[in-house]
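User: I'm curious whether this sequence folds into something compact or stays loose and floppy. Could you predict its structure so I can see for myself?
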Amino acid sequence: MRENLVESLFEGRVPYEIYHPFPELVEPSAGQLRGLRENLLQAENPISGVELLKRWEILSRGEYWGAPLRTRLCALLGECNPSAALSAAVHFALGRDLVENFGTKAQKQNVGGKNPPVFSFALTESSPGSDVSQIQTLARQEGDDFVLSGQKDWVTNGLYAGFFIIVARTQPMRAGTKPGLTTFLVERQPGMRIEKLDTAALSHAGVAKVSFDDLRIPRSAILGDLGKGMRVIRAGLAGARLLVSAAAAGACRRVYNDTISFLEERRAFGRPLANFPSVRAEIAKVLSDVLAVETLVLAAAGDPLTRRESFLERGVVRLFVADAAERVFHGARELYGARAFTTQEGGKQPRVSWADARALTLLDGSDFALQSAVVLEGTEPFRRKIASLSSTSEQLDHLDLLGAQTLERMRGKLRRALSPHIPKMRMDELESFTTALGELVRDKLKKHRDYFVEMHNLHRRILCITTELAGWLALASRVRTEAEKHGEVGARRMREVAEVWVTGAVLRIRSSMEALDENQDPTLDRIAVRAMGDRSYPFEG
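Assistant: Here's the prediction. I'll summarize afterward.
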């Protein structure tokens, strides 16, 4: 049985074999992607991402591709056209796959008869954003039909979609009740009002506002089960998070390539800019982050997951990519200097904007909400065990015993898994930090009990540590696989770049650990409350 990455780390146990051997594409799939990459890099960007996908028949071909190939496809699209990457991620993960996994035979036949359909996913609304508990769109039942009323914002592919998967309430909102959400598969029709949304990022992804004013749809349009829409939403978001993370990884790769090209031409103080030691140090750091982003994304795509595992692991991947991509773009801007902000025709600047790359990793909601969601679900088995025990002493004894058992299992796994190729990846520190994370989680659960659910700042710090450990583990697996294939000498360059990343990760993990010991949350809370009351900067210069 496959180990659960997040729960293993929360237990303080390193799941060494989870990403080993590192997944790789084989021919002819690898060759097909290489050929597509050459064509896409040479082609002029079309009017829309959907146009690009249709031009290269990606929508029809991608129906038959599994996660490893689709993930690499979205990375390629992110490198060439982030809007097309987003359109593909939504079409596949939040459209085609949901119909395949939850649709009826009639729904699949209806979709299959269109050549080829474009899918869109209508969840976000202007007021609650992606907070599904506050969705206002209502589908009220009338006989054998539902009457749909409401408005969806930020609907990717909305301008071009032939089919929409729409999330709506099927019962009125009442305090203390579950949302009662249902997903519907609705074909484009005159009763929908579709308006283009002008966006500062991903402007060619066909983003639209879609409104419904008493749109009548049959009961047969339900995708999944009535009132069970959260199952469909979670499955779709898990798949989409992997694909948009891959798109961001591709954008990082493009920015790195463009930056290297710029530095080859740029001179300062009579010598090439790339000859300065400080510039070289930044190049190495940027390259290490690009490698780490790509590695964790590809590792997560290589193994089939249950829906629960997929939600947890891919949430960690998405958060990791958001942080690392920000470092990549920050480093690139530093290397470009003022040229990073020019809009002049022919001006040298990255061809993928930071806004596009960051927007890819925000479309499923804020990092803060996702951090809490992953922590709460990942610790749910531990919290359930605590709740089942009758006394405080039993709780403490049980958890201490659990810690000893998991530590011993971890040591046994470590002895079996370590190879001569990865000690230079500071694996002893990976073990130590993972053990510390497990102790931290157990300590905070014992100390705070039910209130742990409300401790969002604690969730954020726990996830910062968890994402770094996940990236570290994936890199170790990739370096190990590279060494097994090509020997120590053949893997040396990748290992050295990975070691640079690990050095930075160690500093970030230590910083997060120290923040837990020097907790400023009460002070930060007081400052924020007063700042909101002031409504403007409170100090005179």
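Summary: The first helix runs from residue 5 to 10. Residues 344-349, 401-405, 414-421 have pLDDT under 50 and may be disordered.
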